[in-house]
Structures are given as C-alpha cells and as structure tokens.
Give the backbone structure.
Amino acid sequence: MLEFDKLSLNVPPTTKKRVIIIGGGFGGINVALNLDSRDFQVVMFDKQNYHAFWPLLYQVATAGLEPDSIAEPLRKLFDDKDDFHFRLVRVTGVDPVEKSVQTLIGDLHYDYLVVATGSKSNFFGNAQVQKYAFPLKQMTDALNLRSQLLQCFEQASITRDLDVQQSLLNFVVVGGGPTGVEMAGSIAEMRTHVLPNDYPGLDFSRMHIYLVEGLDRVLPPMDPESSERAHKYLTELGVEIRLKTLVDTYDGQTVVLKNGEQLKSQTLIWAAGVTGSLIDGIPAESIERGRVLVDEFNQIKGLSNVFAIGDLAYMKGGDPEFPNGHPGVAQPAIQQGQRLAKNLGQLMRNREMEPFRYFNKGNLAIVGRNRAVADLPKGVHLGGFMAWATWLFVHIFYLIGFRSKLVVLSNWIYRFFTYQRGTRLIIRPFVRKEDIKQQEFLVKNEMV
Ligand SMILES: Cc1cc2nc3c(=O)[nH]c(=O)nc-3n(C[C@H](O)[C@H](O)[C@H](O)COP(=O)(O)OP(=O)(O)OC[C@H]3O[C@@H](n4cnc5c(N)ncnc54)[C@H](O)[C@@H]3O)c2cc1C
C-alpha cells in the first residue's frame, strides 16, 4: 500500500531547460514528440496513462470497438525518447510566479510550461441535466454508456410494464454536432442489424432515437450541403430529429424540452458542448468564454514562458483566417503542438518564434455504413460511399500505433461482412447512485 505522504514526483534534476507538458492528448504528445532531447528535459503529467483517439469514442460506447483499440499507453509512445519523464498524476494548479506546477504529490519547477488539458462537457449550468445525463468525453463515459445501452435492452426484455419498457427503448441524443450525429446513427444501425437477433422477444419498431439540436440544422460547423445530406441519412435510419429545440430539464426518466414536449427516456446522451479544462493559477483575465486566451505563438496572455494549446486555447485575433479562434477538433491541437515545439527550439537559441497559422484539412462526419459527409479543401463536399471511405481511411491513418490500426481495421472488416458488433459486453454494470432498487437487484444477482 502506498503511503501518500511518502510519494514524490521523483523527476531527476537537469542542467537542460525543463519543459513541463500538462496533458498527453493530441496537443501535448505533438509537443513532446517534436522537442529535441539534446536541448530539453521533457516532463509530461496526465491523469490517465494513455493517449486516446477520441473521434472513435462513440464506437466504444456503441459496442463496436474495445477501449484498448483506440488508446495507446503514453509510456509506450515515448519509450525511445531520451530524457522524457511521464508521471501519472492530476495537476491541481500552476504558479507562474514561482514557475512551478502543483500536484497532490509535490511541485515541480519548469522553464517552459505547456498546458494542453483539452476540454470537458459543458452543461451550460443545468445541474439537473448534468446529474442524470450521459456525457461522452472520456473512456469511462463510453464504458458507462455501453453498459447503459445494453442494460436497457436487457431490462426491456424482462419488464412487463409497457411504459417502463418504452422509456428503456427511447434514447435521446442532445447535440447535433459530429459526436451527436455519430452516436444517433450508430444506435440506429444497432437497431437494424444487431438488436433484433439478440432480443427476438422485443418489438424494435417501438424503439425511438431522438436527436435534439438547438440550431436550425445538424452538423452546424459543416457546410449546409453536408448538413442536409447528414439530415437525410439520419432520417433514412429512422432517427427522429428535433431542430431549434433546447432541453429544459431531465430527471433520469423524462426529458422536458423547452418547447414543452416530453420524451420518456432512461438514457439522455449529452453531446451538446464543451468548455476548457481549466487549471487553477491561470489568471482570470487570461480566460474568456471558458478557454485560455493566447497570442499567435500560443503564449498565454499576461504570462511569460507559459503556453496553452488545443481545445483549451482561445487564439482570439491571432490567426488572420480564424479571428474567433480555432475549431475544437484534433487538427488545431496537433498543428499547434508541432509549431510550439519548433518555437521552443527557437526560444532556446534566442531566435524569433513563428506565429501559428492553422491549415484546415477539412471536416468529416459519419452517420452509418456508406453514409458520411466530408467538407474538403477547395470547396469540395463529398457524401455517401466516397465520404464514408474517406472517413475510414483518415481515421485509420491518424490512429496512433500500429497495433491500434490493425485491431480497428480488422474489427471494421469483420463488422462490414457480418454486421456484428463483437463487444456487446456488460463488464461493469452502470447503476446510478440514487437507484437503490437496481443496486439491490445487481447485488442479489451477483452482478457487481
Ligand atoms: C467523443 C469525441 C469525439 C470527437 N470527434 C472528433 C472528430 O471526429 N474529429 C476531430 O478532429 N476531433 C474530434 N474530437 C475533438 C478532439 O478529440 C479534440 O479537439 C482534441 O482531443 C483536442 O486535443 P487536446 O490535446 O487539446 O486535448 P485532449 O486530446 O482532450 O487531451 C487532454 C489531456 O489532458 C489530460 N488532463 C486534463 N486535465 C488534466 C489535469 N488536471 N492533470 C493532468 N492531466 C489532465 C487529459 O487526461 C487528456 O489526456 C472529438 C472529441 C470527443 C470527446
């Protein structure tokens, strides 16, 4: 058993400049991979020991992929990098005056600090929705959701109460961005291809999937043509779309929409927005709209030698083509990480840093088999099979690690030919803390 007060960060002293990177996501790993070990000692802190490929998280949630296939241990990613030190620890704060990073097991001095903590779900202050909704932002969220979806079908197949059964078979996805669209499409495909075989006693014509979006179209960040296509694909799959509609309340049983409509559902999936994962110690005047203000070099406004990249960073007015900041997707985080590593090398040599300029490689979203949309550079918009094939290729290409590429590809080939989803497992049942009856049921059944 570890004695808490005897733990320490245990990072060796160095004569080189020390770069501390908080977060091993898309931004953080691209800084570390591109820093020269001859110039810098690199220390990375993350509260999880893996780098995850979040664009495929919805497939974990819908039993298409195992969590391991979309994640790579951070230590493995850097096992051939000299003077790189990973510590599995949550950062609790930073002290820009003392130039130190604080964790529960000690502080560490930095010469340069990179904050790459990404974002977290934003419930827009709706505490009740936050309490009962299922977010999809972390691996544990996806596993909870996978258990919840499968438990709903198991319970629907054994209840004699038709109202309860209906609420188990209704799924409400809130947020019509890529994650919401992909979730809704994926559940709809399960209804067509997987569930009727698994639960022959259930009438799946009674299963409803609602997609609720506040704006006037799905996929608002994409071209209207792509939104229209995605809308059509979702409708073909039987997803019931509510546009210009906001959620008012949710008590775990009934979703009340602001237009007065009520949807009985035990599962509300929240994909409606994110906000920066802020760290204590960053001055309040450097924070705007939940993100950290940075200049064109990703340096946090008002601080020196402290940088923020990726979802957390708000480069307001710094990049002429993106005066309102960059979209919260993987490419800006990757490109900012790469640029920043080069700029830190420049700083070391007392040379000028280069401003960050985002190169938009395009946007993709998948609805289902042969149904995807793509906005590519030069105004090219693809749909159907071409966009679907592009989506598959891009996601395999950007997945980190050969093992992950192989596992995901073989899973997809298997699924393509069989329509099956191999990971329909309730390993760790999901149960709400308040649901005493269900807890008792699981304990009596020796399921937990
Ligand atoms: C479900 C989902 C689907 C997505 N789909 C797409 C898509 O299809 N295409 C696309 O381009 N983008 C997609 N994104 C967005 C994309 O994943 C993010 O834009 C990208 O991950 C941002 O990179 P980042 O480095 O800023 O943060 P992240 O990749 O989120 O990494 C942040 C890291 O910081 C760590 N961390 C946070 N706080 C602390 C702390 N206090 N102490 C220690 N460690 C900490 C976290 O554990 C995490 O490892 C999706 C995101 C999600 C959640």
Q: What stands out?
A: The longest helix spans residues 330-348.
